[in-house]
Amino acid sequence: MQNTIRSLLFGSVVALTLVACGDGSSSAASSAQQDKDTLVVMGLDDSFPPMGFRDEKNELVGFDIDMAREAAKRAGLTVELKPIDWNAKESELNSKRVDMLWNGLTITPQRQQQLLLSKPYMDNHQIIVVRPDGGINAKADLADKVVAVQDGSSAVEAVESEPDVAKSFKELKKYGDNVTALMDVSAKRVDALVVDEVVGRYYVAKKPNEYKVLEDNFGTEQYGVAFRKEDQVLQQKIQSALDSMKADGTSAKIATKWFGKDVVK
Predict the structure, then answer these.
(1) Predicted local distance difference test score (pLDDT) of residue 263
(2) Which residues of 212-246 are buried (b: 16+ CB within 10 A; e: fewer)?
(3) What is the DSSP letter of 135?
(4) Which residues contact residue 72 at a Cβ distance below 8 angstroms, ignoring those fewer than 6 apart?
(5) 50 upstream amide cis, omega within 30 of 0
(6) What's the CA angle centered on 190, arms 188 and 191, to 5 degrees?
(7) Which of 69, 74, 86, 153 stands 20 to 30 A from 176 (CA)?
(8) pTM (2 d.p.)
(9) What is the pLDDT of residues 45-85, one digit of tens each?
(10) Is the fold of 37-123+223-259 the same as that of 124-221?
């Protein structure tokens, strides 16, 4: 009788243990799936201040990063920041290594065909940065000069959209990042840099005696957030969050922090 009771008790303990383990596995799997469903990876260029860059502590900061974090929070998502080769950004997105591109991405007709984009959230210009003593005072003065651009940036397309001007250059020199290109302007290795206004003015303000911004520019453009064509749900969540941020003044506060004024459309 005692052996029978022991057997029954042992069987009950084993059964309870299996049930408990089963519940734990199910809970863990559910949690992991939830994390997967709410995690969104943001591809960015980490040398594009003040939109997205590394500070003196090597931490990723910037206007677009603050905007993305707030939008993700409102959408019930967690954003993971992933620096990528900006020249290969479309490939990074379509290969699903990132879920969205958010770092001063210019809306172009080609990108509207290939990608799913948010509404424009900011206007930008492609400005021309030169040395104050370089003898360049207008776009026409770039003839026979070496002009720098960041490879893969909208500055390349902006310059190429004016073929007569581009053909007049001695050379259109492409750089991996704008920081190095600006240093070469200062060092007289190149004569000018065509760059996004938000970036160019950020650096010029730091060293106003080393650089000058021309009145001429290579046109106006608009920034947006890019997603894969099939990710309509994610795009709608982020767009809804951006709309609410503009409506309640949050985006204006973020813009004022980085630009000193509200620059959000």
Answers:
(1) 86
(2) bbbeebbeebbbbbbbbeebeebbebbbebbbebb
(3) S
(4) 40, 78, 79, 238, 241
(5) yes
(6) 85
(7) 69
(8) 0.73
(9) 998 899 999 999 999 999 999 999 999 999 999 999 999 99
(10) yes
Do 120 and 265 touch, CB atoms closer than 8 A? yes
Q: How far is CA 159 from the centre of its chain?
A: 22
37-123+223-259 to CATH, choices 3.40.190.10, 3.90.1150.10, 1.10.600.10, 3.40.50.880: 3.40.190.10
For 145-191, write each residue's pLDDT tens digit. Answer: 999 999 988 899 999 999 999 999 999 999 999 999 999 999 999 99
E-assigned strand segments in 35-88: 39-44, 47-48, 52-54, 60-61, 78-83
What residue ranges do the domains of the chain occupy?
A: 37-123+223-259, 124-221
Q: How many CA atoms lie within 13 A of 165 on its CB side?
A: 18
For 13-45, what is each residue's pLDDT tens digit? 333 333 334 444 443 333 334 455 789 999 999
Q: How high is the pLDDT of residue 38?
A: 85
Residue position matching structure tokens 């003593």: 133
Which residue carries 């005072």 as its tokens? 137
Fold (CATH) for 124-221: D-Maltodextrin-Binding Protein; domain 2 (3.40.190)
Which 8-state DSSP code applies to residue 107? P
